Amino acid sequence: MIEIENTFFTLAENCQRNCLVICDRGAMDASAFVPKKDWEYIMAKNGMNPVGLRDTRYNHIIHMVTAAKGAEAFYTLEDHLARSESLPAAQMLDDRAAEAWIGHPYFDVIDNSTEFDTKLRRMISSVCQKMGIDTGDRLAIGAKKVKFLVRSLPDDSKFPKFQDFEVVHEYLKASVRNTQPRLRRRGQNGHWSYTYTVRRPKINGQQVEVKTQVTQRDYNLLLGQKDDKHFTIHKTRRCFLHNNQYFQLDIYREPCHPRCKGLLLLETYTTIEGKQLMKRLPEFLDIVEEVTDNPKYSMYNLSLKEEWEITKHFCHKLEGPVDELGNPVLINGVSNVVLEPEHLNEALSKI
Description:
This protein has helices spanning 2-14, 36-45, 50-56, 87-99, 116-131, 216-222, 274-280, 299-302, 344-348; strands at 61-64, 107-110, 144-150, 162-171, 180-188, 191-203, 206-214, 233-242, 245-253, 264-270, 287-290.
């Protein structure tokens, strides 16, 4: 599987056109069907590690929940040559396959809460959103990121299976009005992945974040553009599945501004709202309130060195003039290409 994928990855990298490689199954799926010790032996023998195989190799993971969970009436063995599992077995294998990807930074679970055509549109919309592609209202189904303030961290035994990561964020200087460029270093057991992100004004009511994986060398080069108005953000990010929903719990760590000490923020992407959403939230967490649109809990504002009462850099809402394609208007008509992911490699070669 890995060799086949590598062939397509190489073809895409050398193609003169933009390419999207979609893998039906990924390397980590095998870990769901073999004992843990055997899987660790396979990785060690081949010089692999979970961060490289799960987080760095694939930009985005989508888990399409089996019909056996939530759409049982449509699960049948008739006319399905590749399907042989009973309903309980299919449910168990689906859980294992999803758990194999816990920890990936961009992991979306598409459940059976809607009819099948809408389920497919949700999947396509998820891909487009991660790529920063504006689809207008053709795929609009209301999915958004929601954020909750958590009062305290319960004992690890209260959580379902989870993965913890060390995460470091650095904000960079922006030469494009109303954008927020940043770097992220995310690691586990000494293995790291690196991401460059540009947050842009909303398009059709949706926040746009264009993300690009970079190498360690590129990460170190880009650090030269660090914005001194911001502290470095240190977190432990805990990833887990609960009620067919993928959650990330950010546990802020020192050194940090006093406003971040002990801060716990829970995030997830969902189409569910109101009381139905509250029922999906982990009951073992003491949720204080939803803070999705509260600028006090924006990482950009949390990282500011100056006190909010005196700073001129507190961002209440990221918005601004855009051109006909939805791109931010440049300061004085000039852009530093380092801040645009599509020109990132070109810019780095000049540093």
